[in-house]
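I am still learning, so would you mind making up any protein sequence you like and the tokens describing how it folds?
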Amino acid sequence: MRTRQGWLFPARGSTTSVVGLDRLNAMTSAVDHITDLGAYIGASPSSFHAVHEAARRLDAAGFTRLDEAAEWPADPGNRYIIRDGALIAWVVPVSATPTTGFHILGAHTDSPSFKLKPKATVGRNGWLQAGVEVYGGPLLNSWLDRELCLAGRLVTLDGTEHLVSTEPMLRFPQLAIHLDRQVNESLKLDKQQHMNPIWGIGNPSEADLLGLLAEKAGLRAEDVGGYDVVVADTQEGRIFGTEGEFFAAGRMDNLSSVHAGLEALVSVAGAKDGPIAVLAAFDHEEIGSASRSGAAGPILDDILNRISHGLDAGPAEMKRAFADSVCVSADAGHAVHPNYSERHDPANHPLLNGGPLLKINANQRYATDAHGAAMWARLCREAEVPYQEFVSNNVMPCGSTIGPLTATRLGIRTVDVGIPLLSMHSVRELCGVQDPVRLARVVERFFSV
């Protein structure tokens, strides 16, 4: 047998059973999907890059970008909008009426990181450093000793937005063990003292990090009026394992769900009937979603209302459409950790490559209820995809997602799902190769029925 990226393929002249061929075909599909996911992550070092790469893919699939300040067409079609680091895309089928329900896949484009502060160039003892603020809840130690870049948007004084992404240029250097003999017993990182990455040698008063970014974007520093720039890992995603069963990359929480939604939405573009399929990729989930482009803000309500208005829906018809709508909140979840199994529920131990998670919490930190669980089970059965249930250990705090926010704001039934990960919020997370494509298959089914 010859290998490609860890999967086994029959050598020329060998024989393979039908079951073996089915397994190989499934593996090939999973590898193709995960390879494309890696390409999407690589093109998306910031939330702004993530939505623009998504837009590029939607454009190639025949979608039309709309301007929120303009009139919108009322006829069926495939369309999307971008609001800062968020994107909402949808497919209105030919058969849509004022009361046609929405099937929404909710995800988010941001990941834990570090964001450039004002006066971005700092330093001491002959080093140039970037002044950064912690964004969300990154595993700080995972960012040490890696080659990092800066990525995001620069906005010039005339209001024009320019994306920028550098080559590897920064590093959080760890203190050598010779200078901290207890480091392996207790590593404590101070977010202010220890988490300002180096990017050069020199005098901070004579250096200009923002000027370098402006030059990279083809601008003059004096023309830049504002910026949203984060630190990002530059290492490519990689398939590994004895059978090629694992995939490591940054930002899978939650670009894995955005990518699955993109793949599924493109597959139903031009639909003649069915629900109105919607991909809602929000920004700022990692810091609470309270922004004009976050799930706690008005963006999804704005877009659904405008779609309904284009179908001549009045207030009563819109309420009927919402009552017939469902949101699948797709965000990565936890696989059981082999070295810390006591941190997990003793009876529910999700594994990588066991299928996407159905996330459940009695206190509605996840929005799944019995009807949502039954719908997810039916979709997975119809898509021939296994799934696993996730629930937290009673003594461990449970995180949350955009799911409860969407259910609360819009009154739409919501179910929380996602692929299982190890090392969540690390600069480099770990998933199973099979799980992302399985999530995409279920979402495609969800968009179709």
Q: What stands out?
A: The mean pLDDT is 93. The CA atoms of residues 149 and 366 lie 34 Å apart.
